[in-house]
Hints:
This protein is mainly alpha-helical. The protein has helices at residues 2-19, 29-41, 44-57, 64-132. 11% of the residues are buried.
Amino acid sequence: MRRALGVAVIVVAVGGCAWIPLKPVPPGAAALERADNLARGGAWEDAVSAYAQYLARYPDAEDARRAAASRDTLRALLQARAEGARLREEMARLRDELVKRDSDLVRVRQEAERLRTDLEKMKEIDFRLERRR
């Protein structure tokens, strides 16, 4: 019985040590995890804000460089998306302007053809008048 009790004590002691984390949890780990989860979830504006808050609170933390890199990457991504949206709007505006100018060109060509036809008619009339004289 004594032997079983000794084994049980050793098992409990060793098992209890297994629950102790080998590496201490860095300060702000929860805040950084929250920012990472926001970034993974696609809430990039909120993630940038969360990374900025983490860096404001823990500027010297072990993961501060990674948090700054993630924040900067997300900022660049958001700027690129905004620039892409602006360029799409500009392209749509230019496409509309091109269609308008194309229709103006068709109208001018039709007018030129009409004037050319009128000019030919006037030449014919002038030619007939010359022949009568």
